[in-house]
Amino acid sequence: LQRRMKIAELKQICSRPDVVE
What we know:
Layout: H1 3-15
């Protein structure tokens, strides 16, 4: 069930590519 967390992280990065570390 960790894939959901990874999807949320990817979604955030896609939503804000300005916050890429």
